[in-house]
Design brief:
This protein has 12 helices and 8 strands. The chain is α+β, with helices and mostly antiparallel strands and about 280 residues long. It starts with a strand and ends with a helix.
Length: about 280
């Protein structure tokens, strides 16, 4: 079933995190300022990303980055099957090295996806189980949550509005004892290790000897990936959406105020639309 929404309701990071959790396969389209960006996922992993500009198509990138000759690109029809990722085919035949292939995939993510994380509004759609674009695929992939985290870490200061950050007197708790598989920064690891409903972000920053603003940014990133969740204080834990969450903080009392109906409604609507037939 197709899904349509707006980034004002769910950020791109939250979308990618949900798609990894649901092991979604399909095409995510985002309407950017200069056209439609397309991202393809397979079982919750990003396999290709394409910006609206034709020069970012994989065949053109191969030539522009001097990875293969124009003649090789012209002969692709006879060299590579339409059911095999183009990058893997060229590597198998010795035209491109594994290191160059990895560099190409990083470039794809940079221009076709990471640049969108500064957007605060814009339509998106998701079409499940569409045919994979093998001619745009390097053959490499990356977990959607890891992609989201890396993109958020790269945002410039002028692309990160402070009004959307948690307040200095906010409290957070860790939602899982499991270690994330994607690469966290030293500050993000430290926050996961020391975050507690017993201390607010000011106290957490002091304990870590870290800049308060950077701690607020890091907590916002971790919250978007579902690794942290806001709570009231050490006297109350957030009412968990999952039953297992109560086991993580057995000594904390249940939250006195109910979860906001608007948030429950938004999550319910999104998850229903993402459910495949």
């Amino acid at each position: 079933m197709a899904m349509l929404g707006d980034l004002q309701e769910f950020s791109l990071a939250e979308l990618l995190h949900l798609m990894e959790k649901g092991k979604k396969t399909g095409q995510l389209s985002i309407w950017g300022p200069n056209g439609i960006y397309r991202v393809w996922l397979y079982q919750g992993r990003v396999v290709a990303a394409l910006s609206p500009q034709e020069e970012h198509q994989l065949e053109r990138l191969l030539v522009r980055l001097n990875l293969v000759s124009q003649q090789v690109v012209a002969d692709l029809a006879s060299l590579c099957s339409l059911q095999e990722p183009l990058g893997l085919c060229l590597q198998r035949q010795g035209f491109i090295s594994p290191a160059a292939l990895a560099k190409l995939f990083r470039y794809q993510l940079q221009v076709g996806l990471y640049s969108l994380f500064a957007l605060e509004a814009g339509q998106f759609s998701f079409l499940p189980n569409v045919p994979l674009p093998y001619r745009e695929m390097t053959g490499l992939s990356k977990g959607a949550s890891a992609v989201a985290l890396e993109a958020l870490q790269q945002l410039r200061l002028d692309q990160r509005p402070e009004e959307n950050l948690p307040q200095p007197d906010s409290y957070f708790w860790r939602t899982s004892t499991e270690l994330p598989l994607y690469k966290l920064s030293p500050l993000e690891w430290a926050i996961l290790e020391q975050v507690s409903p017993a201390r607010n972000l000011v106290e957490l920053a002091q304990a870590l000897k870290a800049d308060l603003l950077e701690v607020r940014y890091a907590c916002a990133r971790l919250a978007k990936l579902g690794l942290l969740s806001p709570c009231d204080s050490s006297a109350a834990s957030p009412q968990p959406a999952l039953a297992a969450a109560s086991k993580l903080l057995p000594n904390l009392r249940e939250e006195k105020e109910p979860v906001k109906p608007s948030l429950v409604s938004r999550l319910s609507t999104l998850l229903k639309t993402m459910r495949e037939k």
